[in-house]
Amino acid sequence: MDAAAAGNKEREAVQLLAEAEKRVKSSHSFLRGLFGGNTKVEEACEMYTRAANMFKIAKNWSAAGNAFCQAAKLHMQLQSKHDAATCFVDAGNAYKKADPQEAINCLNAAIDIYTDMGRFTIAAKHHITTAEIYESELVDIEKAIAHYEQAADYYKGEESNSSANKCLLKVAGYAAQLEQYQKATEIFEQVGTSTMDNPLLKHSAKDYFFKAALCHFIVDELNAKLALEKYEEMFPAFTDSRECKLLKKLLEAHEEQNCEAYTEAVKEFDSISRLDQWLTTMLLRIKKSIQGENDGDLK
């Protein structure tokens, strides 16, 4: 859309806002309150929503978010909880592009309504959106973790275990980055155990046990050995996996304080299965515990 067309949409939106405000004010008069005050409020809701959509077309995200918020508050006044929640979500989506903190405020308002209505699955979905804003926009990992945990709780309560596990894996990944290894280990083990008996998901169990073992390894070599034995016993398919073989090589190299053997084992694994950033970070932390190892690289 060109600048002139966007400007026209903004002007239309501003006119609608003015009309909506007039409707709201007139609904407060004594006689209107007796005769059809709600009708005026309903009309104002519609006008705020139309204005918000025009602001969206003009890419004025803050104004769109604000107009959706006004509509949401009026829907609450009318006891239209579902419509209010929808408008708060629309406001959050608009604010995401301009004001991440305000987006979170709107999503939290929607979450409160959905939980009050017993709509826990949709509340969980918006907790995830909130967590993602904390991850990518506000870079507050502790708060992202809290929202992923809340989403997981709601999904579990609704028996959506696969969705709950996705959230828990996010929590575990971040917990390990923050050096909360016990928390990370418990979650990776829990998810690994819950997936290893599922024919469709069991191929992923080895990844979760691998990550749990790495978290153990960073804390204590003996812990990692004992954990590895436990995982092989629980999940025999793990023994033949490349992940398990790598762990055994790393444990041997660490026991011998052989940095070259450690690096070679990692390089060999990486040549077939590319290491992601999380695995690279954890493997480097283990490598640094080998005596005299100051190199910040795995290769």
From TrEMBL:
Main location per the UniProt record: membrane
Subcellular location: Membrane
Keyword Membrane on entry: yes
Organism: Salvator merianae
Gene3D superfamilies: Tetratricopeptide repeat domain (1.25.40.10)
A Gene Ontology biological process term: SNARE complex disassembly
Protein keywords: ER-Golgi transport, Membrane, Protein transport, Transport
Membrane-topology annotation of the record: Peripheral membrane protein
Gene Ontology cellular-component annotations: synaptobrevin 2-SNAP-25-syntaxin-1a complex; terminal bouton; vacuolar membrane
Name assigned to this protein: NSF attachment protein beta
General function of this protein: Required for vesicular transport between the endoplasmic reticulum and the Golgi apparatus.
Similarity comment: Belongs to the SNAP family.
